Amino acid sequence: MPSDEINLAEVAATARSRLDPVHWDFIAGGAGDERTVRANTAAFDRLRLRPRVLRDVSKRDLRTRLFGDELSMPVFVSPTGFHRLAHPAGEPATAYAAGAAGTVMVVSMGATTAIEDIAAGGTAVLWFQLYVQPDLAFTAAVIRRAEAAGCRALVVTADSPVFGRRERDLRNGFLDLPSGLACENMRDDTGAVRDIEMDAALTWDSVAWLRGVTRLPIVLKGVLHPDDARLAVEHGVDGIVVSNHGGRQLDGVMATVDALPAIAGAVAGRVPILLDGGVRRGTDVLTALALGATAVGIGRPVLWGLAAGGAAGVRHVLELLRSDVDRAMALTGAASLGDVTPDLVQPVSR
Amino acid sequence: MPSDEINLAEVAATARSRLDPVHWDFIAGGAGDERTVRANTAAFDRLRLRPRVLRDVSKRDLRTRLFGDELSMPVFVSPTGFHRLAHPAGEPATAYAAGAAGTVMVVSMGATTAIEDIAAGGTAVLWFQLYVQPDLAFTAAVIRRAEAAGCRALVVTADSPVFGRRERDLRNGFLDLPSGLACENMRDDTGAVRDIEMDAALTWDSVAWLRGVTRLPIVLKGVLHPDDARLAVEHGVDGIVVSNHGGRQLDGVMATVDALPAIAGAVAGRVPILLDGGVRRGTDVLTALALGATAVGIGRPVLWGLAAGGAAGVRHVLELLRSDVDRAMALTGAASLGDVTPDLVQPVSR
Amino acid sequence: MPSDEINLAEVAATARSRLDPVHWDFIAGGAGDERTVRANTAAFDRLRLRPRVLRDVSKRDLRTRLFGDELSMPVFVSPTGFHRLAHPAGEPATAYAAGAAGTVMVVSMGATTAIEDIAAGGTAVLWFQLYVQPDLAFTAAVIRRAEAAGCRALVVTADSPVFGRRERDLRNGFLDLPSGLACENMRDDTGAVRDIEMDAALTWDSVAWLRGVTRLPIVLKGVLHPDDARLAVEHGVDGIVVSNHGGRQLDGVMATVDALPAIAGAVAGRVPILLDGGVRRGTDVLTALALGATAVGIGRPVLWGLAAGGAAGVRHVLELLRSDVDRAMALTGAASLGDVTPDLVQPVSR
Amino acid sequence: MPSDEINLAEVAATARSRLDPVHWDFIAGGAGDERTVRANTAAFDRLRLRPRVLRDVSKRDLRTRLFGDELSMPVFVSPTGFHRLAHPAGEPATAYAAGAAGTVMVVSMGATTAIEDIAAGGTAVLWFQLYVQPDLAFTAAVIRRAEAAGCRALVVTADSPVFGRRERDLRNGFLDLPSGLACENMRDDTGAVRDIEMDAALTWDSVAWLRGVTRLPIVLKGVLHPDDARLAVEHGVDGIVVSNHGGRQLDGVMATVDALPAIAGAVAGRVPILLDGGVRRGTDVLTALALGATAVGIGRPVLWGLAAGGAAGVRHVLELLRSDVDRAMALTGAASLGDVTPDLVQPVSR
Fold it and tell me: Which residue does chain C place closest to D350, by CA atoms?
């Protein structure tokens, strides 16, 4: 029973025990020497909290709003592909759990279940993650499917002009989905499943094009440089995800929480900033919020939960984090997310 | 014989060998990943002393005064619960040792001996640690018991609006005191033992309320943020304990000695500042004093001493620290605590 | 087959399995405690990239020009001696691979093949590395051989007034080349092979003397101090190699990439700056370019490739790096080397 | 044969293999947790050299002058007690080696050979280390013995108002010299050997008293605080040794090389500054000189050499360091010690 695990590290251990080692490596691994994978968590460990006391935290409100919807807590499901690799129940299980937890699931373009089927099974607010394809007509068609399925935002990945090189997968020879699994959102009108292409030619013009084909909020994912954050706002995006793709694209890239303060400075409150990468504890969530994020996404932990126990496992992961965030709020003197101010965070002295 | 151990680490080893592993874990453990438990000691290791020489330290005076009483040295017994878990002799043994050593014991609200019985057996100056309970009448009754038993100060814990989550205890299933042990200070007038409640609704008004029900000095424990230190002084507290509850409440919180300088700056000498967390050596004591503390408390080391040898073990711990402080004063050129100035401490260059 | 290895660390492992341990130590080792050997790679690990996005990197140009020649990528073969120790095919194999990869090989004065024979077998642009010998007539004769063989630049080593002390070699008793191998560029007109002498009396006048005996561009190798970089430019050198001789001369010397920014500031674009030491990944190349280098050299990795698979092994090393640089450019938003700007690099926060 | 060892770490290993483990611990150990023992060497490892090139280092001059005598190199033998514990030949062997190496030996007050016998056997310039005893008449008598034996300076230890607590010795029960060994410089006119007393009452007046009883230069050893360095100069001392007693007095004290720059700033060239603590390599010597020291002392390495091979072992240690310093000078572009300037040293970037 997944709910035996008392923290995300234990959920990871259960997941590892149940997964094919090659699939575990696919989920756990990153680009190159995986310095950035490690940096994402290590960066949180180098930041310390400086709590406030005696502030009446008897009623704590973890809710936040993003693009018109309410999230029950400032934690959402970041996009990750191939949920059926982790568990046969796949993305619908994840969506069910996210809905039950009252938060958003960002459905990956690389989902192994069609967006329509994911949307059908639960109450989660869904956003759709998009790699803009060179075939813009096909891209527009995918967007229309997402819209029709009720997705409430487009999360456009900007950090992937080419594929990252994940050396575990190369060593393991893990290059394709097992037979029977496919990226169902990539089916075209002939029924064939297209490969997801990374388009190295993308520019800021793509944002304008997207604006022309959808009325959904556009959230740009994969921003680490404050100049890009400024450009994103100038090009009219509705939100930004500070992300390094979980360390899976370019090894040596800075940790997301280290990139956050400069991004927050550049954005200056004009659009919400989200973040993913290395969030494992409620205090990580609070740290990111204190430094300027509105909510944070979790990627690998969702797959751990899914592998460990299907929908119940994902729910367990989300509830572990919720109670962790709630406790961290109480213990830092924050009754609501607005109380989570930058002065709560201090770099560790070395 | 406990006095064989030549430093606190050796006392810890003896204690561990004598304790039920589950009880050892209860004492040793902290919240979450125990980063803050480790940070408390690591922060002292990153600070270095820069001694003075040729200052006539032949007569060294370790005495300090707090709230009208003299301590023979600037080290006191911080509040920790459940002393009978460490040794059948329990809190009275600790109090006897503190008195013999000429210092203060802060009796925990979670003591497994009634304050009256602790006070009866020794000469120690006692302070009483209080979690303000939602039942204020009961809280006032507890305070009156402490006053009647001769306690000389109230140490009000501010860092515990909710319980910390100690994962060792969860894994060990250690959730209750063994039968036969109880928090004797929590007996109400029916003779029943109440659970200690954490009141998340506490505010600075509680300080005013306390002021109205007792004439004892009020010492606020669990302050890490300089703004809270300022507020504490403004609300009339008589002292502050810089503490993170030994890393047992919120993991990821900064080390106490790292928090101290900003607190000292904010308090500006208006009330005495105490500190606990990670003190294991006389040089740690001196470091804290140099950075603005008037005295420091020890928590786990007292329980180690108690487990290792009852009252004699606690006394041994206190005398090890006393001789260590005395030697550190001599070797830094400090004949009295007033000579322990900030310039004696330097961060290690990295 | 060397091309099985997916990164340079794996090529090193193959090389180690094939080499006499004494020869492996000669290649891997450095001076003293090898702190500088480790520092060269560790310094890259402490720097982090901050990529740009949406910049159209569909057409990436890795080419650069140095002293009138085009390199297909900003990576060249730094001078290392004794290639026949790594593989019987020796320096001609290295040169063949460099030529096939479209880049420069710097032929070592300690090559175990004559420069004429190295030049004969491939298409590589060759530069010649020179230790100025006390016998200037002989030095001039060596330069004329290099010129006649078509070398396009002289790389003058400045960091070796005396031999570095490599303790692995002392322990292994590795003091001479095995019989049958000789420094073929040190043959004088009698056919005898002279020992390479380190001339501790060299001064900046040597640069003037070199200017008088050759029209080749003069590149000064082994500069770490910005004042020396300034002097080098003032004395008319055509380029600078920031190098600590791979940590083989003086242990405790700073990492090359840590020295680079001050050198770049001192040179202020007047001559190209090259760098070697610790480059193992495409992101290392990009980091050095962002901080002011025009191209970077690799030393040990070339010998690893050579030992692992002769010319094919060297080519494999160069192509691994090329694809790594290409991918790193795409993923940092750089279509050409001119887009690799200093703001892409951030020190890791600690 | 001790000269097989190629660096001081290897000499240490030989020494350890030959010494009674209790005696090894006495030599190797320090106060408390030995953080300062480790800090002394670690601090050198965190500093990096930034060499100069092309400066004609063909003639290198390692000589320096101190108090009227010439040292063949800027390395001297720091005072350590009980040389007969390391080797039966004891202090005379050390003195013979120091003399053969052309440098100074500081004879310890705790020498197991009388100063007269040490002086008789060799050519070394001797300085005498003094703990000022409460019995000033006896102290004066010891000074007169040192003067009569030809000692050329008094090194007055200021860092020892009380004994340091060395926990290895406590655990080993090593509290006294083995029978047959005695502190021969502590014999009084009755022939009895007095215990060395640490006088906690010493003040700067002791310097004035010493000035009145001897015309020897007075060198104050154990200064770490710049205010004490200033006071020392104002009280007329002729030199200062930046020392933490090899980490044997107070654990947690800063590394000597970290203390050096502020001391050098305070002294401003008015008297020579010496340093000991953690010097193991020629680059450590150069680093200390660059930061303001005129010469550095070695303590444990001398005892390692003595244990490993008597006088020849000590000589080997000194010659290893000499060639190391010489090579480091060549490779940093320093022909004489005057060329060793502060800009040669850089903190490692972290």
Answer: C46
B276 pairs with which residues across the strands? B297
D235 part of the active site: no
Q: Does residue B94 sit at the A interface (CB-CB below 8 Å)? A: no
Sequential DSSP letters for C68-89: TEEESSSEEE---S-HHHH-TT
**What is the residue type of A24?**
W
- CB contact A149 to C (< 8 Å): no
CA B240 to chain centre: 12
Q: What's the pLDDT at C175? A: 87
Cβ contacts of C53 within 8 Å, gap of 6 or more: A158, A159, A161, A220, A222, A223, A225, A228, C333
Distance from CA of A306 to the nearest CA of B (A): 22
Report how far residue D173's alpha carbon sits from residue B25's, in angstroms, rounded to the nearest whole number: 33
Residue of B25, B157, B165, B249 to mutate for A, most A C-beta atoms under 10 A: B165
Instruction: Find the angle CA(B220)-CA(B222)-CA(B224) to the nearest 5 degrees.
Output: 110
- C:182-241 residues touching chain D, CB 8 A cutoff: 199-204, 206-207, 220, 222-225, 227-228, 231
What is the Cα–Cα distance from C228 to C273, expressed in whole angstroms?
13
Contact (CB, 8 A) for A46 and A262: no
Quote the pLDDT of residue D2. Answer: 41
Q: Kindly provide the ipTM of the predicted complex, given to two decimals.
A: 0.96
Chain B nearest-CA distance from A330, in A, is 6
pLDDT band at B208 (very low <50, low <70, confident <90, very high): very high
Interface residue A42 vs chain B (CB under 8 A): no
Q: Which residues contact C199 (CB under 8 A, 6 or more apart)?
A: C131, C132, C133, C134, C161, D58
Q: What is the pLDDT of residues C79-101, one digit of tens each?
A: 999 999 999 999 999 999 999 99
Tell me, what's the pLDDT at B2?
41
pLDDT band at A276 (very low <50, low <70, confident <90, very high): very high
Q: Looking at residue C349, what is its pLDDT?
A: 66
Tens-place pLDDT, residues C193-247: 999 999 999 999 999 999 999 999 999 999 999 999 999 999 999 999 999 999 9
Residues 6+ apart with CB under 8 A from B17: none
State how beta strands D273-276 and D239-242 pair: parallel
Distance CA D314, CA D92 (A): 11
In chain C, residues with a C-beta closer than 8 Å to the C-beta of D346 are 254, 258
Q: What angle do CA D291, D296, D300 make, to 5 degrees?
A: 130
Indicate if the alpha-carbon torsion angle B196, B202, B207, B208 is positive or negative: negative
